[in-house]
Amino acid sequence: MMEILTTAADAAKAASFFEHADLYFAKSMTLIGGFSAMALSAVGAAYGAGRACCAAIGAWKKCYAQNKRAPFQLLVFCGAPLSQVIYGMILMFVIISNTTSDPKLHAAWPVYLIVGVSAGIAMGISAFWQGTGGAAASDAFSESGKGFTNQLMALGIIETVAIFIMAFAIVLLGSVPVAA
Question: What is the pLDDT of residue 73?
Answer without folding.
Answer: 94
